[in-house]
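Morning!

This is the sequence you dropped in the shared folder:
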Amino acid sequence: MLFAAGLGTRLKPFTNEHPKALAQVNGKTLLQRNIQYLQGFGINKVVVNVHHFANQIIDIVNENNGWGSEVIISDETAEVLETGGGLVKAIPLFGNAENIVVMNVDILTDLDITAMLQQHIHTNALATLAVTERETSRYFVFNNQNKLCGWINTKTNELKGIANFDEAVHKKFAFSGVHIINKKLFGLIKQQGKFSMVDVYLDLMKTNDIIAFNHSGNKFIDVGKPESIVKAEEMFQ
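The structure's back. Tokens below.
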């Protein structure tokens, strides 16, 4: 699943008239790039949620026959549901898939989805989260077994899930916006309506294994701002 429903406010003025998924990097939209990126790992069926200028996404998918993939639209035009609500709305579209790769459409990376899936299956994780050791302000916190145990905002010192951050037993990683989710997770989500997957993970980590996949050696960029498109064009041809 590609999360493409967001308003993309950081990409203004482009997103005043277009969805962020159609921002271009070297002549290819983020949507096309990520559909073709997933194809490289044998993933040819993709759910895309839409809200902001939804018809532009639907039209380009139809015009290009999904760039060779089966693209299924999850329509959020009535209300944008954030990552958690968007995932729940799309559940009927996943068929009988055992594991689902989920990623933000404005992320570009060359991380190895096959290796991430192999780890996910080997650890029997409920969810596997792609992370890197990069500078940011909000981090997922993992214990020494690479299991999610909390969240920290280093600017405000807000903590969730843990009473304090102890470098002896905790590691903090920046989330890359790429997850692999086992279908068992769907029946465990208590939240309703509009909510973030971050809240779901912090809720479920107490009784389930949510594991880090560290891909710090890979190319990675969040194409969220106009200046990041210039950088992305240097990284991805």
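Headline: The CA atoms of residues 225 and 233 lie 13 Å apart.

More detail when I'm at my desk.
O.
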